[in-house]
Amino acid sequence: MSNTPEDGDGAQVTTGGLFPVFPTSANSISAISNAPQWLRNASFTTDLSVINAAASTAPSSSEVEAGDDEDEEGGADGNIGLANQARVYNLVEEEGSLESDDDKVKRKREKKKKRKSDNASDESRSRKSDEYYSKPVKDYYLDTRPDPDNLAYGSIYRMNVPRYKLDNSQRVPGSGSLRFYLRNRRSSMLDTEIDIDSLEGRAKSDTRYWYAKHAAMERNKNFKRIRLSAASEAVDSSFDNFIPLEEDVTVPESDEEDVLSKDSMIGASWEDEVLNKTREFNRVTRERPHDAKAWLAFADFQDKVSSMQSQKGVRLQTLEKKISILEKAFELNPDSEELLLALLKAYRSRDNADVLISRWEKALMQNSASYKLWREFLCVVQGEFSRFKVSEVRRLYSYAIQALSSACSKRHRQVDTTSEPLDSAAIQQELVLVDMLVSLCRFEWQAGYQELATALLQAEVEFSIFSPSLLLTEQSKLRLFEHFWSSNGARVGEEGAFGWLLWLEKEEENRQKILKEESSDDNEVGGWTGWTEQVSGRNGDDIASANTGEVDVDRKGLDEEMEDENSKPEDDTEAMLKLLGIDVNTAASDEVKDTSTWVKWFEEEVSRDHSQWMPTRKAGEFSSVEGMGEGEDEEQLSSVVLYEDINGYLFSLRSKEARLSLVYQFIDFFGAHISPWTSSNSLSWSEKISSLETFSDSMLENLRSVHECLSKSDSANCFSLGSLLGGSCDLSMRTEMMKFLRNAILLCLNVFPRNYILEEAVLVAEELFVTNMKTCEVATMPCQALAKRLLKSDRQDLLLCGVYAQREAASGNMKHARRVFDMALTSICGLPKELQCNTPLLCLWYAESEVANSSGSGRDTESSSRAMHILCYLGSGLAYSPYTSQSSSMQILRARQGFREKLKKIQSTWSHGVTDDQSAALVCSAALFEELTNDLPGALEILEHMFSSVLPGRKSQSHQLELLFNYYVRMLQRHQDDLTLSQLWKPISEGLQLYPLNPELYRALVDICNHRMTSHKLRMMFDDYSRKNSSVVVWLFALSYELSKGGSSHRIRGLFERALAQDTQNNSVILWRCYIAYEIDIADNPSAARRIYFRAINACPWSKKLWLDGFGKLGSVLTAKEMSDLQEVMRDKELNIRTDIYEILLMQG
Fold first, then answer.
1. How far apart are CA 665 and CA 565, in angstroms?
2. CB–CB of 136/109 below 8 Å?
3. Tens digits of per-residue pLDDT, 633-688?
4. How far apart are CA 1124 and CA 1120, in angstroms?
5. Residue 773: its H or E element
6. Confidence of residue 443 (pLDDT cuts 50, 70, 90)
């Protein structure tokens, strides 16, 4: 609707209905008079420059807020469009209010002067910006898709900086005037009860384009916001007669009134939401006081309330309320570990370190058998920089292991000692006990005590795996083990080791042989010669010191000579230091004034860490610390691990699952390749990932594949995350470790025979050992001799044949691999049934090797025909014969029918929660057979159907089902060119919900989504996963994606900061080390790396590698005094330092 008010001269100015804010000239009216009715609108003939000029002189929202009584003054200033508005007449005020009219007039004059200056500046800005806009080519424009931002920029915006920011995007219909448009937007935002002037004094502008009063309004708790929700769908009348299985829950009248009142509310402020939520939580916790999740949700809501508070005192009050809620919840549910952990974490935000530790100790005294409480308590103690000491943490670990071990022993005493197998609860207790020991070894290794970590693992493997079968008490077993540990016998992993049990047997044989020889000597001499005692290594010193009268004088003289000899090197050392200009008595900070000396110290320290990781012994001479000579070197003393150092951490294991877990984690601890033996959701896997210092081989392989995938499209400015930290150890250290592991695994195979995971690990360790030892290439596989030796000792071990053939195929020797596979499959018919059940694994490995060897993607290649022949044999159940020609249609039909029958049996067993490697291999073989013979949808249908037959809780904990899902994703990747994005994306998203710590799924996610969606969308997906299931794996792949794509430095720093701001990742050493390496190597910002370094050592004071990064990478920003102080703090925290700075000074001199 158009308004046509008369101006002062009596002329009428007609305003168009579409853009009423812009005036229309008389010429334009005459030009339109002959045009059709639908073209007579002024917007079609208005010059665009006039629109730009009018828009540039349009009032801002601050001018509109001055009041309605300024219309005439605004028109006098040139705003003709505003003058065309209908006048608004206010009511006559009372006499009391007329007394301040003079003040109002003065205020209006000041605002008018300010508005004139603003309009002049707006016109100048409009003239400058018009230079960037091209002149319109057409005479008119149709605004089919209106953009409100055009008003902010003055025209179709092409520049980056608007003149102002609109307050709201909602436009009131029917209001053509820009001023009325802005006024209505203002009135729709602000509540009439809010005092704007009171907020204006204390408001501060947060950004450039927001007014201060509206920013304060957004922060106001009384500001009511409208929350839109979808309307409830109409219920179909056909469901009137539907009878539900559950009875309808009757809603009380009070609740109905609350619902109606909520629906009738136009908007709700933040305080209203807090009151409503609090009322709801109170009702839920009152009705269900034993619902721990409801109490935890109530406590988490207090964190949300606290985040909205600006005052520190109010936040502390909210924290106290949260603590009181959790205390009440734990009082009603004293057996809930989740509530106790949440309460202790809340105490951490309020109490100091001493009070917090006392609360933890009190909680652990009442719940000593809880692995989660011990694990969290140890993380708290390790993260407290002011209290951290290596010896203190080691003592707490001994308490934890003893408490968990006593809980296991108590449970074993409650059940029958001969009952086999053990119940699941007892097995789980032993598994977490093994995890606690491995966590201790990892802590010792990272603190620099590699010899102690190695000795702890050696001792536990000997004590639990190779223990004698005698029915001994725990104390008797420990005394017997002390004799073994203090002897000359080789331990597991060392050359000539054959286990504690065989060592005892040989010791007993030697003792009987000595007794026989002594008795024969007595019979030859004849007669009684008196009582004699057997001379042993233990009482040799006592016997040698029997003749004290003869030795005292000589010993005094010998001691005096030794003192004279020891004093001479000290004098020589002091003289040498004085010649170098070093005073021994000065402070440590004044000794070294050159940072290059500390860099050399760092290199020597790293070299010694790599070479000194095996415990040393003096031929069993010393059984205690007192036995060491006074002149022994301190470094050699620290590398000797005595029985007193390990006896507090030993425990017995009864279940086979726990003993296998110990062996598997022993292999994985030293960096050997080992197939997945546990789910990624297990405690051992999550603990391993969270405590990474360097990239493991499996993680490094996944990150490299991501980098290779991304670098194909973006080759410029891309970096690899795996290359930031370099290798985990040098070549010599890795070679010695592989030799150590080969010896240990071969010994363990005597206890766990025909274990294909151990057999594969020992062959890979042999390959790495031989390859690193020999610089020249060898004609045969490095592990061929070892594999033949193992097969010679056990010719019925089919899985060993399959593992060896896989290694041959991976090295490219496919002909030899086929001979080994064929030999194993042809000899399987004459073996017992318990060995024939391994046929699916053997056939799957053979078929996968053929598919990998296939040069083309079609089915007509020879390798595909060979794979189809193998799978036809598995499905039909006939006797195997080597490949001669392609399989016939009858053989394929018989194999398909056989697979269907076998899958039905597997489905019934899986529904009861029983899964194993053989059944999972059979399902994968059936899917591969369907892929080769029919098509991909049939293969995917088999995998989806079998996977859906298992309950979700069992899916997440079964590593066989996780391997099956990984196989499913790899099949999708092979055919991703033939599938849509939704077909690829849906299974990966479901898999990440089940296995959020699986690195292979994140690698597949990047591989599939890289070329099918924008980078922004993939970044949003990573952000979503990091919020839902935050873990080190998610952040590492998100960072790898950004570095490989050459992402923005702000984005990369934001990822690091968000990851390290969380409590679960703040103690991640690998994230801190990657952050420091990024700032040094890529961003080239040493000052930022210095700040991050100090934050890192404060969060992770136990990591020696992290401390040494300051000496190796920050030499340009750290002074010599700071490096000296860092070394002193390392000694104060009891980290193992192997090199003295005096040694470096002597080498330089």
1. 49
2. no
3. 555 677 899 999 999 999 999 999 999 999 999 999 999 999 999 999 999 999 99
4. 6
5. helix 756-773
6. very high
Structure token pair of residue 1020: 């949003």
Number of C-alpha atoms within 13 angstroms, CB side, residue 791?
Answer: 18
What domains are there in the chain, each with its CATH number? 26-194 (no CATH), 268-350 (1.25.40), 837-974 (no CATH)
Q: Check pLDDT > 80 for residue 805.
A: yes
Report residue 225: phi and psi, to 5°: -115, 140
Burial bucket for residue 1065 (CB in 10 Å: 0-12, 13-18, 19+):
buried
Beta bridge partners of residue 6, listed in sequence order: 12
Query: What own/partner pairs with CB < 8 Å and gap ≥ 24 does 310-316 have?
Result: 310/219, 316/350
Long-range contacts of 582-590 (CB under 8 A, 24+ apart): 582/1145, 588/1124, 588/1127, 588/1128, 588/1141, 589/1121, 589/1124, 589/1125
Query: Contact 613/733 with Cβ under 8 angstroms?
Result: yes
d(CA 552, CA 563): 17
CA atoms within 13 A on the CB side of 11: 7
Residue 996's pLDDT band (boundaries 50, 70, 90)? very high
Q: Which two tokens stand for residue 582?
A: 């070093």
Residue 996: asked if its preceding bond is cis (omega within 30°), the reply is no
Single out the residue of 998, 919, 938, 1007 nearest to residue 965, CA to CA. Answer: 998
* Contact predicate 919/841, CB 8 Å: no
DSSP 272: H
Rounded to an integer, what distance in angstroms lies between the CA atom of residue 689 and that of residue 676?
14
Cβ burial 278-289 (10 Å sphere, 16+ → b, else e): eeebeebbeeee
pLDDT at 79: 41
- The tokens for 524 are 């030859």
Q: 């200009």: which residue's tokens?
A: 581
Measured CA distances, 945 to 46, 165, 292, 896, 905 (Å): 67, 55, 35, 16, 13
Which residue's entry shows tokens 């949300």? Answer: 304
Convert the pLDDT of each residue in 332-359 to its tens digit.
999 999 999 999 999 999 999 999 999 9
Q: Which residues, 6 or more positions from 883, have their beta carbon under 8 angstroms from its beta carbon? A: 865, 866, 869, 870
CB 221 within 8 A of CB 271: yes
Give the integer Cα–Cα distance in Å for 852 and 866: 12
Tell me which H or E stretch contains 168.
none
Q: Helix/strand/coil (H, E, C) string of 24-87?
A: CCHHHHHHHCCCCHHHCCHHHCCCHHHHHHHHHCCCCHHHHCCCHHHHHHHHHCCCHHHHCCCC
Q: What angle do CA 758, 761, 764 make, to 5 degrees?
A: 150
Q: What confidence score (pLDDT) does residue 218 get?
A: 63
683-709 pLDDT, tens digit per residue, is: 999 999 999 999 998 999 999 999 988
- The answer to whether residue 586 scores a pLDDT higher than 60 is no
- Per-residue DSSP letter, 12: B
Q: Rounded mean pLDDT of the chain?
A: 77
Query: What confidence tier does 712 reach under pLDDT thresholds 50, 70, 90?
Result: confident
pLDDT at 84: 43
Residue type, 308: M
- For residues 795 and 25, give the distance between their C-alpha atoms in angstroms, rounded to a whole number: 105
Query: What would the DSSP string read from start to end of 966-1006?
Result: HHHHHHHHHTGGGS-HHHHHHHHHHHHHH-TT-HHHHHHHH
CA 895, 899, 905, 910: dihedral to nearest 10 degrees? 160
How far is Cα 170 from Cα 185, in angstroms, rounded to an integer?
7
